[in-house]
């Protein structure tokens, strides 16, 4: 694209005029413009410009001095913008479109409300929703920064307080934390601003006018945080952070037992959410919730890295929730779909300018047999995979190959896909690598921990099966290589396995092979004793006591870093087992069934305002650090617990 010229601006400007100073509307969309093509000296001559369309170009940033004092409408959709701070030059902007910029995040959406005081419409929707969310966060951040200021100053002698104030800003940015990791860029940005205001005022106050709350006094009065019923926000905008989504934050019923060991700490109820309701109805207590998964931590691989953002699915919606605040960060709906499974992966992509960006991509699948790849931060679906003739029961990503995705379907097939990395239009083109045939419906997928590139375990309606998934083998369609049974009796084969997960590099937890128990068995010992057999009895290490229910499909999960096994039941309880002491014993396998370490009871009816008197917890997942635990029910409730440090 040649640089912008006066002639081009006159051709594309409205109303028609031979003078740039009279143009009020300018369309520069679809010209493949780069950031350096926007010449401030030329564009600043558009003194009366009120509307500018820069959509469908290749802009990575906007120049900071375009000189458009009367601009009211700006369209920048479908570019490569990664920073919104240059927008502060357009103080009169009332309408803004930034859709289709994959590197803009929820944090950038919040920043917009501070940078543009007159903004009324954002991405085609009323900007008050985003502004309300920013107000809630800003109130809490202001409180925390002020408390940090008092603590910081109290630790200094009077003569050092004045000279140390400059250090306070750095200290606050480093120490003050609130909200999900996905909003950390925004919160640190605001913490710095609030801290600088405190320092400038000598610690007396912050300037209310600098917050969206101060500029827009007409916002609705905030509802109390704890409510007996869940109030629903009308509509389904991607950024819904209203605390009114909560059902309750009340004390839990009796808790049996307590965690032991170095990671002990009482689990306390934090939020009970109703965010998957059909037609946004608060009376919907029937929508079945199926699966949840914690987002990979942004600093994953570093000591102490963990996540507090969880994705949940059920009905026609996938929700992304911050466990600390109970806020729904994103909601993705597909009318007529019923989502059964979600899984995260962290991709590294390279922009056209050669910059590396990290994407956390969420895969979701269900009744229609389609896999949707969701770019959660940007808020859109960037890939659709078709490969199954029936519903997809579950899916999971390879722990060693970030683009390898396993999908398991009611068509009795498991498919390994390579979703690849997105192209320049931020779309995925998945390719099929393997097809694994099953004799019954696969319910749970579990790459074998010590060799995830070689073998895949699956809990199926007909038992526990294992496939060779090595890609250096010629066959692209394979049958089950080994079936594992949990008793030496011949009739043990064919029993449903509806729970399956590795506790550590060797020990597997499985459920469904016997009523009232969860089985711990050794992968290495079982595999060594296989020989050439196609049916192998597992080497049982221990059996854990669980509910005696005959009901099925209660999914278990593990927290390998903490040596924990978790499972819900038909009474709304969460069974927690710390199996580290058990596995550390050098004695032969335990004959006696081992009791749980702790059982979390569902809250008493009065705690939820008589809303839910009985429920089943069918899925329980904890984040790697075991600081948050999320449970899903058959009555459309997402329950979140937090571990209180001892």
UniProtKB/TrEMBL annotation:
Its main location: nucleus. Residues 7-194 form the Leucine-rich repeat and WD repeat-containing protein 1 LRR domain. WD repeats lie at residues 385-427. Residues 205-216 have a biased composition (Basic and acidic residues). Keywords: Centromere, Chromatin regulator, Chromosome, Cytoplasm, Cytoskeleton, DNA replication, Kinetochore, Leucine-rich repeat, Nucleus, Repeat, Telomere, WD repeat. Belongs to the LRWD1 family. This is Leucine-rich repeat and WD repeat-containing protein 1. It comes from Cervus elaphus hippelaphus (European red deer).
């Amino acid at each position: 694209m040649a640089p912008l010229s006066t002639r081009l601006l006159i051709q594309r400007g409205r109303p028609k005029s031979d003078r740039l100073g009279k143009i009020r509307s300018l369309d520069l969309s679809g010209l493949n413009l780069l950031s350096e093509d926007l010449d401030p000296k030329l564009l600043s001559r558009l003194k009366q410009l009120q509307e500018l369309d820069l959509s469908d170009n290749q802009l990575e940033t906007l120049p900071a001095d375009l000189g458009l004092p009367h601009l009211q409408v700006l369209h920048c959709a479908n570019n490569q913008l990664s920073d919104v701070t240059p927008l502060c030059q357009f103080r009169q902007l009332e309408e803004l479109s930034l859709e289709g910029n994959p590197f803009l995040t929820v944090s950038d959406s919040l920043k917009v409300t501070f940078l543009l005081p007159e903004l009324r419409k954002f991405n085609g929707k009323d900007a008050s929703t985003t502004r309300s969310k920013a107000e809630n966060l800003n109130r809490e951040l202001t409180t925390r920064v002020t408390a940090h200021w008092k603590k910081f100053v109290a630790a200094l002698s009077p003569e050092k307080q004045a000279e140390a104030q400059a250090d306070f800003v750095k200290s606050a940015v480093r120490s003050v934390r609130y909200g999900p990791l996905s909003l950390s860029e925004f919160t640190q940005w605001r913490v710095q601003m609030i801290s600088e205001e405190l320092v400038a005022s000598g610690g007396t106050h912050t300037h209310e006018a600098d917050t969206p709350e101060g500029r827009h006094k007409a916002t609705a009065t905030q509802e109390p945080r704890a409510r007996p019923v869940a109030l629903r926000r009308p509509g389904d905008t991607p950024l819904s952070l209203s605390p009114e989504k909560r059902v309750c934050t009340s004390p839990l019923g009796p808790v049996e037992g307590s965690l032991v060991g170095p990671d002990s700490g009482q689990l306390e109820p934090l939020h009970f959410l109703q965010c998957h309701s059909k037609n946004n109805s608060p009376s919907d207590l029937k929508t079945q919730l199926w699966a949840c998964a914690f987002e990979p931590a942004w600093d994953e691989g570093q000591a102490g890295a963990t996540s507090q953002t969880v994705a949940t699915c059920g009905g026609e919606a996938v929700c992304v929730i911050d466990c600390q605040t109970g806020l729904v960060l994103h909601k993705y709906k597909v009318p007529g779909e019923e989502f059964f499974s979600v899984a995260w992966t962290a991709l590294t992509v390279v922009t056209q300018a050669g910059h590396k960006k990290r994407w956390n991509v969420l895969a979701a699948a269900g009744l229609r047999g389609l896999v949707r790849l969701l770019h959660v931060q940007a808020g859109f679906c960037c890939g659709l995979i078709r490969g199954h003739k029936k519903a997809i029961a579950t899916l999971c990503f390879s722990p060693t190959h970030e683009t390898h995705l396993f999908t398991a379907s009611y068509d009795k097939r498991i498919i390994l896909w390579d979703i690849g990395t997105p192209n320049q239009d931020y779309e995925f083109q998945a390719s099929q690598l393997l097809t694994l045939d099953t004799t019954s419906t696969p319910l749970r997928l579990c790459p074998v921990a010590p060799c995830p590139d070689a073998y895949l375990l699956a809990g199926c309606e007909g038992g526990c099966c294992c496939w060779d998934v090595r890609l250096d083998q010629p066959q692209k369609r394979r049958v089950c290589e080994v079936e594992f049974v949990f008793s030496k009796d011949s009739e043990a084969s064919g029993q449903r396995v509806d729970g399956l997960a590795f506790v550590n590099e060797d020990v597997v937890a499985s459920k469904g092979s016997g009523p009232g128990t969860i089985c711990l068995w050794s992968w290495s010992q079982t595999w060594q004793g296989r020989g050439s057999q196609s049916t192998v009895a597992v080497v049982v290490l221990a059996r854990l006591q669980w509910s005696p229910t005959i009901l099925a499909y209660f999914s278990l999960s593990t927290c390998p870093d903490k040596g924990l096994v978790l499972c819900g039941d038909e009474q709304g309880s969460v069974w927690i087992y710390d199996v580290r002491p058990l596995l550390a014993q050098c004695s032969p396998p335990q004959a006696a069934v081992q009791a749980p370490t702790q059982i979390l009871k569902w809250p008493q009816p009065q705690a939820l305002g008589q809303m839910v008197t009985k429920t089943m917890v069918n899925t329980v997942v904890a984040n790697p650090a075991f600081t948050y635990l999320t449970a899903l029910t058959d009555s459309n409730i997402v329950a979140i617990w937090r571990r209180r440090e001892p």
